[in-house]
Amino acid sequence: MYYAYLLQCADNTIYAGYTNDLSQRIEAHNNGIGAKYTRSRLPVKLMYYEGFTSSEALKREATLKRLSRKQKIKLIEDFQIDSH
Asked: Which of 7, 28, 33, 82 has its CA 20 to 30 A from that of 41?
């Protein structure tokens, strides 16, 4: 399984990424060995994700990165993380 996701950083910015192991990737971000962007903005919190059966997650990540902050917030608000 592949995932495209949005993280909320400690400075309230939103980071988009993709991975094939969501829990391991979030842990890596919070341990400072994730993306360079998140290293100085710890801790991060998973706010949104989508699952894919192929590397389509990489394409979705690119789409998420191009969204405005307002559009990202709307996705997060409409997403119920506990139900996924």
From this structure: 82
- Beta bridge partners of residue 6, listed in sequence order: 16, 48
CA atoms of 43 and 12, how far apart (whole Å): 10
In this structure, the number of other CB atoms found within 10 A of the CB of residue 32 comes to: 11
What confidence tens digit (pLDDT) does each residue in 36-77 have?
Answer: 999 999 999 999 999 999 889 999 999 999 999 999 999 999
Query: Which of 55, 53, 76, 54 shows the shortest CA–CA distance to 64?
Result: 76
Distances (CA, A) of 76 to 7, 42, 73: 10, 19, 5
* DSSP per-residue letters across 35-53: -HHHHTS-S-EEEEEEEES
Half-sphere exposure of 34 (CA within 13 A, CB side): 28
Q: Which DSSP symbol is given to 26?
A: H
